[in-house]
Amino acid sequence: VTHSIPACIGSLTINSKQLDNESPVSIFAVNKCYVTVQDGTFFDGSGFAALVREGYKVRSDVNITLEFRTTAVHGVLLGVSAKVDAIGLEIVNGKVLFHVNNGAGRITATYEPRGTNSLCDGKWHKLQANKSKHRISLIIDGNSVQIDNPYIQSTSADTNNPIYVGGYPADVKQNCLTSRSSFNGCLRNLVLTRGQQTELFDFSRAFDLRGVFPHSCPGAEH
């Protein structure tokens, strides 16, 4: 077993002596247990999760779905980036942006909530970002934005890089993200689909996890 248990552990005793888990000698990716908890992964706004160490190939078609909950109006959701070719999802000023660069230039689909509706209201919102060759679309809570790419000859995002979720390291360049703000909130049900290949990502199996707490999200009132 090479990944941590997604659970709360308390009242641990060894040889009848209770361990003091309030002042550990060292600690990594361990958070408190919440009185009210929801399914999801909590991002505390300081870090990121890095998935697929060997590299994710976006290529011509990819469909990304996830659910998010936040009260912050800025934050990186997801990025995969080579030097030029890249995709990126982020929240900027309360809008969701989906950027794609197939090598000829960046295009962006922007979803802006109407009226007083907010995507940063601490409630769950469903996101779907689709890249089909040179076309991209963004669907938030069933509302769709579609963009035609002027670079119609360029159809493939030739990446072979990790997927960064919720942020990215300072020494990593992301060609399709404009924000450096780490996501502060909860994510769940991250699925990437290419053709017949569908992957549901488990954050506890990330190869690098900073400020991210898999499988438990504090209840909305906390």
TrEMBL record:
<dbReference type="InterPro" id="IPR001791">
    <property type="entry name" value="Laminin_G"/>
</dbReference>
<protein>
    <submittedName>
        <fullName>LAMA1 protein</fullName>
    </submittedName>
</protein>
<feature type="domain" description="Laminin G">
    <location>
        <begin position="38"/>
        <end position="217"/>
    </location>
</feature>
<dbReference type="InterPro" id="IPR050372">
    <property type="entry name" value="Neurexin-related_CASP"/>
</dbReference>
<dbReference type="InterPro" id="IPR013320">
    <property type="entry name" value="ConA-like_dom_sf"/>
</dbReference>
<dbReference type="Pfam" id="PF00054">
    <property type="entry name" value="Laminin_G_1"/>
</dbReference>
